Amino acid sequence: MLDEETGFVPQYICNKTCTEILHVSLNLGGEFIKESTATTFLRQRGYGWLLEVEDDDPEDNKPLLEELDIDLKDIYYKIRCVLMPMPSLGFNRQVVRDNPDFWGPLAVVLFFSMISLYGQFKVVSWIITIWIFGSLTIFLLARVLGGEVAYGQVLGVIGYSLLPLIVIAPVLLVVGSFEVVSTLIKLFGVFWAAYSAASLLVGEEFKTKKPLLIYPIFLLYIYFLSLYTGV
């Protein structure tokens, strides 16, 4: 506020303003010194990492499916390869074996478990157990026979090849009262599943030993079907 007579700011106003500025500066300076002392103390004690601020990494903002390594297009393609095992259809079926995944077979096994419940929830854990240990048995037998296959590959192929049994499940509900037709459909489903799995797992390296691996695969799917039908 200017003095009307002199045109200058009165001395007492100037003194008051300077005092306020000095007070604020001292406070800010005190806080700065205090913060600097705390930072130094933490760093001396080895806790400096608490003060570090991490920059956002673009890789941390990946979609959930990508984070879990789930490729829906790849899973869909493998499902088609298993359901249509004929070479004439032009599918690269070896991708099911050569590029195994976990989530696709697990989803198929869980879905087969759900349609096999019939009010008995223990069937779910039993089917998953048979999938894991049955695949382990096929894997060990394949290795003994000289096959170059990994356990993850066997696990994926056996899991995906349950799809034919899922396909025939609603048909069995319709023709369940016709015993002969029901039996034929069951045999067709088991042969379909076993052929899909065996054609992927039984390679040329087995030569004359193919039946030794095809037979346990066939028995494994018969057992899976028995868990569904409750036999």
From TrEMBL:
The cross-references to Pfam families, in alphabetical order and at most eight, read:
Yip1 (PF04893)
Residue ranges annotated as transmembrane are 102-119, 125-145, 157-178, 184-203, 212-230
In the UniProt record, the signal sequence range is none
Residues in Yip1 domain copies: 91-226
Which keywords, in A-to-Z order, does the entry hold? Answer: Golgi apparatus, Membrane, Transmembrane, Transmembrane helix
Localized where?
Golgi apparatus membrane; Golgi apparatus, cis-Golgi network membrane
* GO terms for cellular component: Golgi membrane; trans-Golgi network
Family annotation (InterPro entries) = Yip1/4-like, Yip1_dom
Q: What broad class describes the main subcellular location of this protein?
A: Golgi
- Keyword check for Lipoprotein, yes or no: no
Q: Which GO terms describe its biological process?
A: endoplasmic reticulum to Golgi vesicle-mediated transport; vesicle fusion with Golgi apparatus
Membrane topology recorded in Swiss-Prot or TrEMBL? Multi-pass membrane protein
The entry's family comment says: Belongs to the YIP1 family.
This chain's function reads: Involved in the maintenance of the Golgi structure.
The protein, known as: Protein YIPF
Q: What is the scientific name of the source organism?
A: Athene cunicularia (Burrowing owl)
Gene transcribed to yield this protein: YIPF4
